[in-house]
Design a protein that fits this description.
Pfam families: 7TM_GPCR_Srx (PF10328). This is 7TM GPCR serpentine receptor class x (Srx) domain-containing protein. By secondary structure, the chain is mostly helical. The chain has helices spanning about 20-45, 55-85, 90-125, 135-165, 185-215, 220-250, 260-285, 290-310, and strands spanning about 1-5, 170, 175, 180.
């Protein structure tokens, strides 16, 4: 399957066209929202020692991938070029930037599969396969995965140089331009990538459910069970992101013959799932999400006390001290 968004049009597409201006505004807004969300996940893992678990390290690496797409690809390439109408980088450099961003999307999906397997072994074999859950093993596995993605970027880029088929941002289509070769089974693979982790996560959740019933009187076990149930729902939501991107990019992009719809299917959805990924990780994080609720409660209590003192002022009186 090939997706070709190259253009032979001589018209000028820049900020004077409403699709370009609106697309640039939406991309900037997405990055403005997504960068703090994903950065908070990274800072949470780096700063807080209690948060340095294998699961949180996976989330931090995933958030770093999201930051690259939102900052380097979207803010660095897509937004300025959609406004001025032409590329600001050499073709080879821009091609590498975009290809690497696409590979990070695939990397995140591989990571989702590993995350579900990680939770599965953590639940069913917590002692026998404890080394699989360690930070060192998880880091080694991610280094190998990054190496695989880097190798894929290098080989694909060399092939594009040989065939003069660079990928670059198209100000007309508001998406990458050029021919992107995808396997014919790519969409089916994206469907499988959500079904397989969902099955693994379901088995894990059922196991947690029965453990929770058996240990319902022990507060520590209840707390651990709640944490793992939350991680189950987090991984289920994250597993669906790649499928959503593939559905719009491979199936729904031809429904409407308008370049803004092309932007929505190929660019906006791709960017938005990285924003949504950061939001999911933040909301399910044991430290970040409750912290926001506590902060909100403290603010409400402070305002309430202030208003009470303002409406009902109190004055105290004490008799004068007698002179001895």
């Amino acid at each position: 399957m090939e997706v070709n968004l190259s253009s032979n049009s001589t018209a000028t597409y820049n900020f004077e066209n409403w699709p370009n201006s609106l697309a640039a505004a939406l991309m900037f807004m997405n990055s403005f929202i997504g960068l703090p969300l994903n950065s908070s996940i990274i800072c949470n893992f780096v700063v807080c020692k209690k948060q340095r678990t294998a699961f949180n390290m996976i989330c931090a690496i995933r958030a770093a991938n999201n930051v690259y797409v939102l900052l380097v690809v979207m803010i660095g390439v897509y937004v300025p070029e959609s406004l001025i109408g032409f590329s600001i980088y050499p073709r080879s450099v821009e091609s590498i930037i975009i290809i690497f961003g696409m590979n990070l999307l695939v990397y995140n999906e591989f990571q989702s599969v590993y995350l579900s397997i990680n939770r599965f072994f953590a639940m069913l074999f917590p002692l026998r396969f404890n080394w699989l859950l360690s930070i060192k093993f998880t880091l080694l596995l991610h280094i190998l995965c990054y190496g695989n993605r880097f190798w894929n970027v290098i080989t694909e880029h060399l092939d594009r140089i040989e065939n003069s088929n660079h990928i670059s941002f198209s100000a007309e289509h508001l998406a990458y331009g050029g021919t992107l070769a995808a396997p014919d089974y790519f969409f089916e693979w994206s469907v499988l990538s959500i079904i397989f982790p969902l099955f693994i996560n379901a088995v894990t959740y059922i196991r947690f459910y029965y453990l929770k019933k058996r240990t319902s009187r022990e507060s520590q076990h209840r707390r651990k069970a709640r944490e793992n149930v939350a991680q189950f729902f987090q991984t289920v939501f994250q597993d669906s992101l790649f499928f959503i991107s593939s559905t719009f990019g491979l199936k729904l992009n031809t429904i409407i013959a308008h370049r803004f719809w092309t932007f929505f299917c190929f660019t906006f959805v791709w960017q938005f799932i990285h924003v949504l990924d950061g939001f999911i990780m933040m909301m399910f994080n044991a430290r970040l999400s409750p912290m926001k609720r506590r902060l909100k409660i403290n603010i409400i209590e402070t305002i309430t006390k202030f208003d009470t003192r303002k409406v009902l002022p109190t004055r105290t009186w004490s008799p004068p001290t007698p002179i001895s």
